[in-house]
Amino acid sequence: MIKTTFITLWGTYCYKVMPFGLKNAGATYQWAMVTLFHDTMHKEVKLYIDDMIAKSQSKEEHIQNLKKLFLRLRKYQLKLNPNKCTFGVTYGKLLGFVVSRRVIEIDPDKVKAIQNLPPPSS
Length: 122
Known about the structure:
The protein contains three helices and seven strands, in the order E-E-H-E-E-H-E-E-E-H. By secondary structure, the chain is an alpha+beta fold.
């Protein structure tokens, strides 16, 4: 909060949350996530910037991992955007790839977008 303080005619103000316009916002956010989830990373949870994946072998294990993840989020007052959440899936799109239990493939929609680009004109 100290680093985002600014003064106006009406008083001194500061952000309660980090605005993502700051140059180090992404790195600070990633550091915070690694710090908060250090004991679950690479076991139950995968983190990359603003993506979280709770992984498991069975439905029961998945529910336990989600419960643990939600308790941690609640403890640190973090919120998820429900429109961006998906639960209980066996595959999904992540960082331009289609990820499943057996394989990681390039997202065909990304390939189509590149193939359909118009040729350079200059």
